[in-house]
Amino acid sequence: MSAAAGRPFRPVPPVWRSILYVPGNVPKFIDKAHERGADCVLVDLEDSVPPPQKADARALLPDTMKKVVRGGSDVAVRINRPLRLAIPDIEAAVRPGLSALFVTKAESVQHLALLDEVVSELERERGMAPGSVGLAGMIEHPRALAQIHDIAERAPRLIALMLGGEDFALETGSVPGDETLELPKRLVAFAAQAHGVPMIGILGTVADYSDPDAYRKSAARARRFGFSGGTCIHPGLVKALNEAFTPTAEDVAYAEKVIAADREAAAEGRGSFAVDGKMIDIPVVDRARRLLARHAAIRDRIRGRPAAGG
């Protein structure tokens, strides 16, 4: 906990417009993952890996992690629950280069605090910077909705929240889709946004990858609701996510105009002003600053990627 603010220590949340799932037991997918342009490659040790192959997937992790970062992507690992599976996953995953663990079926601060203890021990043992590995909480059971504000405010290492749509639909007896998942996703988003935690996801289900245009529209709609990035299970959707969660040139130009007008008004001692016939107040200026900061972070990420074939 931060002594000054009474808040848990957390790494700076990364800018992830696109998170590409890759099954940790399938080398042919792993070998190509770095070519897909995803901001983060999420190596899955959970649902996409059959129980008899989980140990093999863990054993592959050191080589897998080296491969997926070659194109400039961050690397994260989705771990299992129950705890007896999560612990060996964490033992295998926490090593230099890991950005985050995606914690399935996150249900309480206590759950995440227990995993924080294990991660902290491994960071010390392996010469890693303390607190360098983030935790992304995946809300997958309706009872966890009662805990989301507590998790968003107090969970250590928390860098993102998301709703695991397929599991949540299973637990509620509903059919996963835009109509059934929008409410719980927005509830998780409100909790995340209330405490400055990025919300990941699209306002629908990630299982259907047959229509990239529909996926892009769903992602763009999620962006309008304040979501910061989305996940996909097919590499053909990475471009759609990157486009949907990147500010447009028009948005950037307008934000720059607002900031310039705000400076001019401040120099003249005016507290209010108009841009393109619209009255501008403090929330609009703050929104413009945030958009430009996000634009700069995305630009820096893209510039830091190796050239094609690198």
Describe, in plain words, how this protein is organized in 3D.
The chain contains eleven helices and ten strands. Helix 2 runs parallel beside helix 3, helix 5 runs parallel beside helix 7 and helix 10 crosses helix 11. The protein has two domains: 227 residues, Alpha-Beta Barrel (TIM Barrel), CATH 3.20.20.60; 55 residues. Strands 7-6-5-4-3-2-1-8 form an eight-stranded parallel β-sheet. With 310 residues, it is an alpha/beta fold. It is globular. The protein starts with 17 loop residues before the first strand and ends in a 7-residue tail after the last helix.
In short:
With 310 residues, the chain is an alpha/beta fold.
Radius of gyration: 20 Å
The fraction of residues assigned to DSSP E strands is 5-15%
| Overall 3D shape | globular
The main sheet orders its strands as 7-6-5-4-3-2-1-8
Oligomeric nature of the chains: single chain
Under the CATH scheme, which class of the largest domain?
Alpha Beta
Approximate helicity band: 40-55%
Biggest β-sheet description: 8 strands, parallel
Instruction: From the 3D structure, determine the CATH topology of the largest domain.
Output: TIM Barrel
Number of domains: 2
Which CATH architecture of the largest domain is right?
A: Alpha-Beta Barrel
Number of strands: 10
